[in-house]
Amino acid sequence: MKLKFCGAAGGVTGSCHLLETDKYKILVDCGMFQGGKFNEGKNHEDFPFNPAEIDVLLVTHGHLDHVGRIPKLIKDGFKGKIWMTKATCEFAELIWVDGWHIMKENLKRYGTPVLFGEADIAVAKSYCTGINYNEKTEVLPGVKAIWKDAGHIFGAAFIELSVDGKKIAFSGDIGNENVPILKDTQKLSNDIDVLLCESTYGDRIHEPIEVRREVILKLIKEGVKKGGAIMIPAFSLERTQEFLYELNKLSEHDKELPKIPIFLDSPLAIDATAVYGKYPEYYDEEAMRLHMVGDDFLDFPGLKMTHTREESKQINHIRGSKMIIAGAGMMNGGRIIHHAFRYLPDPNSTLIIVGYQASGTLGRKLYEGKEKVKIMGADVDVRCTIKAIGALSAHGDQKKLIDWAGSSGNTPKKIFCIHGESHAATEFAHRLRDKYKVEAFIPEFGEEFEI
Question: pLDDT band for position 35 (50/70/90)?
């Protein structure tokens, strides 16, 4: 049995892992590469395998770097079944349609070719089958898989795959501790032979979760005091909803949120938020309690949804303090770049980073303190305040990941550290070896291993 790393190896994005047995070729995730021209250029390259030979595709969750190239996989010849949780089925289609619109826009502006078309999206959707958490499913004759709650985003899972007498777990992305709305990450089974584990934050520890709301409120109050715009580049799936949940608490329950207009300026986030109401069985205890008493925990006084471009443009005419929550989360596209172009030079404005920023993205450059950045071909001075909240990350930190890898009490025999930049993956691997005396590997892109 061979395992080939076709993405998210030596980097964070582009998740794609190929498991080849005597009978089958099984693909887990097929996401886009993100972060700078070099990484994003990889999306246009041929897959390092023949898509027509893939028997089945298993998907961990609906983020772009895990599902974004599935329509391209279809276009290039894949004709198998696609398995994922029910909510992920809905999110994937939203991601594909949104990505297609962005690619069409980039074709007009920069001449960048599109990866796939509407017909490929329609076929991809028809291939998808939604399943429930914790239901063992026969995805191919003699091959069984189970999706367990990863606590990362709504519908996110880690997958435990049983094939040819071995059990292989694919982490997808493992969630942070005590994430609002979502249930806690489930434990690994105690008979895992091989684990592919993300290492996005394998080299750092987030600030305590207990201070999350306090930190959010402090930054908002500081931004309001300055009188400028408060920009939140948020991932449309989960980070946006989690942030809205915290704002709802501060507004309706704690009564501490300053009364300023708050704009959710992301069509994808607005559409994705509607999916949350369809699957209350995914809610944690607190979210379920609010749901049962009729409290829409993703809405509150002062929140305005700006779905159309015209509505988005009207935000510019609002004077004084205002909050703008807009995608993309890494600031490598979407409406946030238009607001950044306008407000980054304003010393009275604030940018609050709430998610991981891949190397090469605008968000990463701002996080690292660049004083001048290029947006839409123009140089922009950075004079606004830049802040980051690690406790709002969708990814578990080093401690969470190490604890989760050993959560069954019986550590997997081999662990491959993926979805991490070199330093993060390396430090994570060393920590795993030190604590569990396990074989820990850091695969390179395209590398194959016998398991």
Answer: confident
Interatomic CA distance for residues 56 and 82, integer angstroms: 6
List, in order, residues 6 or more apart from 390 with CB less than 8 Å away.
204, 206, 207, 397
The 10s digit of each residue's pLDDT in 203-233 is: 999 877 677 788 889 999 999 999 999 999 9
Q: Which two tokens stand for residue 345?
A: 């030079």
30 φ/ψ angles, rounded to the nearest 5 degrees: -155, 75
DSSP string, 128-144: EEEE-TT--EEEETTEE
Cα 105 from Cα 308, distance rounded (Å): 15
Q: How many CA atoms lie within 13 A of 303 on its CB side?
A: 24
**Given pLDDT bands bounded at 50, 70 and 90, which one contains residue 239?**
confident
Whole-angstrom distance, CA of residue 345 vs CA of residue 342: 7
φ, ψ for residue 280, nearest 5 deg: -60, -20
Which pair of tokens denotes residue 367? Answer: 């996080």
CATH code, 2-204+394-450: 3.60.15.10
Task: Specify the domain boundaries for CATH 3.60.15.10 within the chain.
Answer: 2-204+394-450
Predicted local confidence at residue 108, as pLDDT: 87
Whether 236 contacts 268, CB under 8 Å? yes
Longest CA–CA span in the chain (Å) reads 65
- The string of pLDDT tens digits covering residues 258-274 is 999 999 999 999 999 99
Return d(Cα 180, Cα 176) in angstroms, integer: 10
Residue whose C-alpha is closest to residue 89's, from 297, 278, 355: 278
Residue 127 has pLDDT above 70, yes or no: yes
| Distance (Å, whole) CA 121 – CA 75 | 9
Which amino acid, 215? V
Domain with CATH 3.40.50.10890 in the chain: 209-392
Query: What is the rounded CA–CA span in Å between residue 414 and residue 21?
Result: 18
How far apart CA 17 and CA 28 sit, in angstroms, is 5
Are 45 and 51 in contact by the 8 Å Cβ rule? The answer is no
| Cβ contact 199:392 at 8 Å | no
pLDDT, averaged across the chain: 94
- In CATH, the architecture of 209-392 is 3-Layer(aba) Sandwich (3.40)
Closest CA to 307 of 273, 347, 350: 273
Which pTM does this prediction carry?
Answer: 0.92
Can you give the pLDDT at residue 214?
Answer: 87
| Contact (CB, 8 A) for 420 and 401 | no
CA neighbor of 228 nearest in space, from 352, 93, 322: 322
